[in-house]
Give the backbone structure.
Amino acid sequence: MKKFTSVHDVPDPKTLVQEAMSLKANPFVHDALGRHKTLVMLFFNPSLRTRLSTEKAALNLGMSVISMNATEGWQLEFQDHVVMNSDKAEHIREAAGVISQYADVIGVRTFSSLTDHERDYADFVLNRFIEFASVPVVSLESAIRHPLQSLADCVTIEEHKTKARPKVVLTWAPHPRALPQAVANSFIEWMKVMDVDLTVTHPPGYELSPLFAEGVPIEYDQRKAFEGVDFIYCKNWSAYAPYGQILNQDPDWMVTMDKMNLTDNGKFMHCLPVRRNVKVEDAVLNSPISLVLQQANNRTYAAQAVLRRMIGE
Amino acid sequence: MKKFTSVHDVPDPKTLVQEAMSLKANPFVHDALGRHKTLVMLFFNPSLRTRLSTEKAALNLGMSVISMNATEGWQLEFQDHVVMNSDKAEHIREAAGVISQYADVIGVRTFSSLTDHERDYADFVLNRFIEFASVPVVSLESAIRHPLQSLADCVTIEEHKTKARPKVVLTWAPHPRALPQAVANSFIEWMKVMDVDLTVTHPPGYELSPLFAEGVPIEYDQRKAFEGVDFIYCKNWSAYAPYGQILNQDPDWMVTMDKMNLTDNGKFMHCLPVRRNVKVEDAVLNSPISLVLQQANNRTYAAQAVLRRMIGE
Amino acid sequence: MKKFTSVHDVPDPKTLVQEAMSLKANPFVHDALGRHKTLVMLFFNPSLRTRLSTEKAALNLGMSVISMNATEGWQLEFQDHVVMNSDKAEHIREAAGVISQYADVIGVRTFSSLTDHERDYADFVLNRFIEFASVPVVSLESAIRHPLQSLADCVTIEEHKTKARPKVVLTWAPHPRALPQAVANSFIEWMKVMDVDLTVTHPPGYELSPLFAEGVPIEYDQRKAFEGVDFIYCKNWSAYAPYGQILNQDPDWMVTMDKMNLTDNGKFMHCLPVRRNVKVEDAVLNSPISLVLQQANNRTYAAQAVLRRMIGE
């Protein structure tokens, strides 16, 4: 696997889910595979879970890890043909080329501007890295997708489903800040290839990009959407159009135990961090129906399955 | 050992001191014990010695280490039942729960506010971590204690004592900034269980919390306190009441060679960093009576003894 | 080898170049040598290539690595006999002494003030570290030299030379900011001991310190300097006198393909990062005559050769 940026990079996503589950059962079975191999992770915005879980995944495989925060002191130029006489000291051509020589796999976390729609949805920064890297690149979240999170979510659903084809609802929830659409986009595209029935619920105006949402039923009545469902996946995102705007902070969209009771013993999922009593009330997170810690745990095995394919024979 | 936050977490402190000394003699004797085990260290304020020595200790045991500065970009909510709609993006329940899944041991460095006495002396941040962590937690200094430093200090005294029951003086010394009481508190509670005679000397007003200082003789005349003593432990702290205030910066309280000559060939100790010619004059630090580097070195074996107990069978 | 700060620390620089080339061919041949040994790297200014390549070098040798940014929160006092009552919390005597106890090798990156000529050219910070460290110290760039870069450059020239004694030109090129002379100084002193003919070309006023430049021909006509040359090494530096000043930003000094055509199939070298279309035009960097990625790659083996000598018997 030369890159892992979306479900489309994986010929057999269901097999990859099984591989992650198998690694969870036996995390150290490939602990010699990563000998003399190095994962370099570059964070263009801060990270807790992604850094720790991916580093743990690499260590489980016997790899060395070097993590760098590229948030300050390292301004990269991504455009070609520029006269570099301002604040950007290095071009992506050199940066990606150089790091490729020190790494066997490069992990890159980039982020959404929420202002430049075209650049974000071209996943410009991530794709420039891939263009000039000579080793496999794994997305640690990009402007529009968070594939390791989605893979971990698939594992979590697989572990907890009680039906061959569970019903899954992705519900928007309020948040005080404008957030990217990456997790929602990515969750949808992975759910589409899994054996689930997916519905999205959000206030009018929060329709996601057709690139992801096309073909997925929308139910604008959140309570109605929850009825008889097996998994509630909660996430906030800013509007796709007008791009990056907050249209609604209606607290009625918060997930409550009252609403969870509408489901068919449904489980609650969220990718963390989660703002308690804004997106979801304490009672849900503190109850056994919450799978948020399990999702975070599965991040390790999602990353490990991907890295294993990248450094495997 | 499920937690290491104070001397009260250790059933047999003297044995732990011996274990640290034994590890110092043979640092790599357990280098397979930490295989496939990870120490995650979280620093809520910056650290040099603690990070390096604890990381070294973990490496000596064959553990992997992931260090994170949590100083910026990661604001945690520690209170329950809060509507999290301000600057804090994650709750300690999720944070500690998640990190526990990536770590076999969690190290946490927190710090004193010096303004909120109640919160500090409840060791609120550290204790919330422990409450929600599912793996052992080692304090890398908390609001009111610095137990790895104290354990290293016990080792240093044990190595350098020339009498079965040496006399030890903890002396306050001036400092331009308001500092926590953590090192002083912690030193006292460890000395109380060691075979030493402890006296504290400080200007009036610098009495430490009765939680720690009760039963320890105070001598307000520093020169008199030094007479015939075997170990001088120098430290600044701000007042306990009024909490966190600087009451005195009298340069006459600086430790000098002249004062050290009042001791019985006494050794000088300080936990570092130390401000030269403010707390202690150059002549003392540059002479062989100073044990400050030995104390710093013993930090490694103190941490190693604690980690070994945490990951041991 | 107790220190690596300049070519003068190496009795046999040509042999060291050969050792680096040999390690490049077999990077893991000494992967047990670093067992139970730790490299601690301290960065007083940020670093990408140096951190990654040196960390990789240490990992190839089986060492553990601890990297610390000392850019904030750790103000060191380097002068003796100071009353430390201002912003500097720790003295270099303690800092270097303490770190020496946690490290088998210390790497230090310091930087030029470009204002205090005397302090910079005494390499004051680096030399104070060496004075008080009790383990070998490797310079990861200092105020006036960048020896690991120069060693990697020697390897690169050795790999790509087509003549027993190639002609090498160090050419100044414009840059929007005032940069140190370290790379240029260091390149010159390493070239002097290699089998090359070195000429320097720069605008009048950019003469380097006689400590380095003495005996090296200067050609003020850049095009004339390029004629018939085998390697063009491009670098900006600020003036040595008046110290640290920008005297010239003439874009005519940019390296172009047109100028490269004056050489004898000359290769282009630069230590990175490089500002495209300011110091050198895209066409040169994008062509196979550019060796900049190879230079960066050789940083790993340069560091590995030095570390191997430091930890080897």
